[in-house]
Structure formats: C-alpha cells, structure tokens
Amino acid sequence: MYRQGDVLLKRVVVIPAGAKLADGERVVERGELTGHAHRLEGMAAIYTRYGVMYVLAGAGARLVHEEHAAIDLPPGDYQVIRQREFDGEQARYVND
Question: Of 35, 53, 54, 89, which residue is 20 to 30 A from 19 by alpha carbon distance?
C-alpha cells in the first residue's frame, strides 16, 4: 500500500474486467482547498469501474503532488481509496 496525503493506493491482483480507461489528465484526486493534484507521471493509466478508480502502473510510474513527497510505484495494478472522516453525524471525504 502507498499513501500520499488523503489518497491510498492498494495493490490488487487485477483491475476488474470491464473497467474503462479514463480520458484526459492523469489526476487521481484534485485538492478542493488548494487546487493541487495527486497525479500520475511516467507509464501509468487510470481506469474506472462502477465509480471505483484503479491505476495501472508500468515501469517508471510515479504519484506526485506539490505538497507531498513523490512515490515511485512498482509496476502493477492498484485500487485508489480516498480517506474519509466522520464528524459524529456524517462521513465525508477528507479535503487535501
């Protein structure tokens, strides 16, 4: 597992069949408060299936962010999990 701020990448055996390749930027999560982004560099792609995000990392893939140390990702498949918090009444995603 790899954590960068409020984003966790958890290794999975395989990205589920039927997952769709995401178009555009390779942004895993954009910070709502700062506008900074957790984004992929190198050989990596984002897939989604039923609202769940996955990362296919190849050789040289990195997860980068302006306020956190970059993470070199070993080749493989990962599920993206966003950190949530509970305030006693409701759960919500943490804003980075």
Answer: 35
